[in-house]
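REQUEST FORM: STRUCTURE PREDICTION
Request ID: SP-0412
Submitted by: Lab K.M.
Chain count: 1
Length (residues): 426
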Amino acid sequence: MKASESNANYPSRLREMTNYTVREVKKVCKEIGPRESGEESERKAQAYVAQSMKDVCDSVETEEFDVHPKAFMSWVVIDSVLMLISVCCLLFKLINPFVAYNWTFYHNLTSALGVVAVACTVISIVLLVAEFLFYKQFIDPIMPKRKTCNVVCTRKAAGETKRRIVIGGHIDSAYEWRYTNLGGAKLLTTMIILGIGSIVLNLALDIMSFFNVPSWLNIVMIALAACTVIPFIMCLFFLNWKLVVPGANDNLTGVFASMAVIRYMQANDIRFENTDVIALSTACEEAGLRGAKAFAKKHADDGIETICIAVDTLRDYDYMGVYNKDMTGTVKLDKQVAAMLKKASENAGLNLDYANVFFGSSDAAAFQQGGFKSAALAAMDPAPARYYHTRRDTPDNMDLKTVEAGINVLLEAAFLYDEKGLCDEY
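STATUS: Completed
RESULT:
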């Protein structure tokens, strides 16, 4: 049975769930506000979710975990500082004001500075790859630790539980990305290209500095190295650490659309025979998928077939898609879950295309890496949109049509999974 066949007045009931989602997003933004990863505002929002769902679920569990909230995005600042040190060392070595003198000390000093320049550049690249590309908890041990929590809302099966479907979004909101706010996708893309390009350029210059080159080439190298100082200084200010964004679309829409699935089932007295339905509100997604990682670590060995659908940013209708690749394209999500979600979109009358998180990541990647078969549903302009991680992500910037379409797909996915389980083709 399709979700659309579960109630004679399905369109009206679907609109009720949409209104619920939008209403809850507005309430959280107004009464709690921005939700900094790992901080009191995030925990307060999670407490609200738990309290609001306790009367419509069979169980609501709050699962605490430790997190180092500023570790993930701090790599940007650390890399910027390391690269400025690297450039200064490289410039001193290339210019070498003592070259005319046969002073062994200064020759040794310039050689040492060359080694320091290479080391700083290499460390910067390691941090970029480990923290951003693969979301490893690389810097965490040196950063302050906090306690936060995920909220797990469960509607149990009527009979024996043979499988579970987890549908969830993240409750936290991000620090503002200054250049996205100032200039949108074009300025953000320019900054990313300049930053990464300057690191690669400096690595080449660092290596070349150990060889004897013509004086004209030395001058070119000095000029190129000096030019990279500006983008590295600008990268220091990439994040506005003093401003946590409202996060209405990213990702309160995902949280409450997930909760709407259980609310729909409870309101219409629907309970699957052998499938548990879990609505999950994760913490600290913006701090490197830490909440999803904690959930997977805790539940991956429960012994029950479990699939996960990460729901992230239901805002831009024309860009809604089923994500089967994640983490800047480095993580392949599960083919069967993605196929099921795509079929669910067809049942919802949408027939969504497959998509790829080619810059950044979603909770689906952490679920998949943690042992769960997973896929993601999202609707955001990948450019990215101007509201992405900026103060523009407010409740009045939501799109009712997109939220409703997202909830429709999620309901169809739950019904389809209960009826057919996982298949290669649907």
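NOTES: DSSP finds twelve helices and eleven strands in the chain.
Reviewed by: T.R.
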